[in-house]
Amino acid sequence: MIKILCVGKIKERYLEELINDYLKRIKKYHKIEIQELKDDINYIKEIKSLELAINQKDYNIALDIKGKTLSSLEFSEIIKKTLIFNSNITFIIGGSNGLNESIKNKCNLVISFSDLTFPHGLFRGILLEQIYRAFKIINNESYHK
Known about the structure:
Blueprint: E1 2-7, H1 13-26, E2 32-37, H2 43-53, E3 59-69, H3 72-85, E4 89-93, H4 101-105, E5 109-112, H5 120-138
Parallel strand pairs: 1-2, 1-4, 3-4, 3-5
Helix pairs in contact: 1-5, 3-5
């Protein structure tokens, strides 16, 4: 199972449509779910909520601007190899304050998609598109350029 653990809810309809489209596409390859946590004004509560939601048995990947950058091919290889040895991958997206060091320290890997800052809903769509692209690459199907 692939899980996306994220802080906050999607409010924009166009982002919901984007996210649902990629969820549908990915489900042809692998089970996937999104777990939304409450975006809390109290950052300490938000951190605690994330800490409780992280399963240490999963392969946890934090998404952080200071993480390692990967190509789409490298990203697909991580997914492919990880799913051989661990049946669960959890991607963790923080709230507006980002991810606390304690959360990143609980993760197996910290990656960055860009030095740019993205709105959380849009980034969720970008992550899903890259997961979909990874499965297309893994299955040697046309899509990736």
